[in-house]
Write a structure and sequence with these properties.
This protein is α/β, with parallel strands linked by helices. It has a single domain (about 1-235), classed as Rossmann fold, CATH 3.40.50. Helices cover about 35% and strands about 20% of the residues. It is built from 8 helices and 10 strands. The protein has helices at about 10-25, 40-50, 75-90, 105-120, 155-160, 180-185, 200-210, 230-235; strands spanning about 1-5, 30-35, 60, 65, 95, 125-130, 150-155, 175-180, 190-195, 225-230. It has a 7-stranded parallel beta sheet, sandwiched between helices. Strand 9 (about 190-195), helix 7 and strand 10 (about 225-230) form a beta-alpha-beta unit. It is globular and about 45 Å long. The chain binds 2-amino-2-deoxy-6-O-phosphono-alpha-D-glucopyranose (GLP).
């Protein structure tokens, strides 16, 4: 089933998104939360920080990571998650897993990540954003709908969209490690966060168009429990 909430602005998205995490943690302090990067989930993390919950037993898994950034880069998703999530929310760093994009063998690092996720019992609540081309995590169009955590080449669209976080486009990595669409589909509850009018077309495509590899986010239609929180601009096409 799909529940769609439309909120006026980022503050509304943050407050509602944070309430889903709060309910999860009150039920089970050591629940497994799936973290997303990108700008869409940031208001959720900020709102949650104000709840002053004890999140020290929460376990968290990131969706994706760049491959081959220089050591200590603050553009890595590990650094972003540390800055935006682990520290402000008081998570235990040992309970936060991000695929190791600096591993000598990224393919092996991807497999190790998938194994760790499985041995944690899977994700209870997975936060998601949607890319302009319909990607989920870094599953670009063409990704198999049952794929697992693996190394992927980033599309030019995605590299251009993410260039704003780097000094220049040349510094945006060519590869990443991403949870697969099959990995994401195993989470018990998917929570998609969408902001801005430039996402309205792709959101409509994902939720109402045919399910297919040209729009990875269309797998939301195959999942038994999806919640979408969208601002009015992004929901305008629905
Ligand atoms: C990035 C991330 C995705 C994210 C997407 C949308 O490339 N890998 O996980 O959902 O872009 O980002 P934003 O929320 O900033 O639009």
């Amino acid at each position: 089933s799909l529940a769609l909430y439309t909120v006026p602005d980022a503050a509304g998205l943050g407050a509602l998104g944070a309430s889903f995490i709060e309910v999860l943690v009150r039920d089970r302090a050591d629940a497994v939360l799936g973290l997303a990067t990108g700008s869409s989930p940031l208001p959720v993390y900020r709102a949650l920080a104000e709840h002053e919950l004890d999140l020290s037993r929460l376990r968290a898994f990131a969706l994706d990571e760049y491959v081959g950034l220089p050591a200590g880069s603050n553009q890595s998703y590990a650094a972003v998650i540390d800055r935006e999530v682990t520290r402000p929310l008081g998570l235990d760093p040992d309970c936060v897993a991000v695929p190791d994009g600096s591993a000598e063998d990224p393919a092996e690092a991807a497999e190790a990540f998938e194994r760790r996720l499985e041995s944690a019992g899977g994700v209870d609540l997975q936060l998601l954003g949607i890319g302009h081309n319909g990607h989920l995590a870094f599953n670009e169009p063409g990704s198999p709908l049952d794929s697992r955590t693996r190394v992927q080449r980033l599309s030019e669209t995605t590299r251009r969209a993410n260039a704003r976080f780097f000094p220049s486009i040349g510094e945006v990595p060519q590869f990443c490690i991403t949870q697969g669409l099959g990995t994401i589909r195993r989470a018990k509850h998917l929570l998609l966060l969408v902001r801005g009018g430039e996402k309205s077309g792709i959101l409509k495509r994902a939720l109402t168009g045919p399910v297919g590899v040209d729009c990875p986010a269309s797998i939301l239609q195959l999942h038994p429990r999806v919640t979408v929180i969208s601002d009015e601009a992004a929901a305008s096409g629905l």
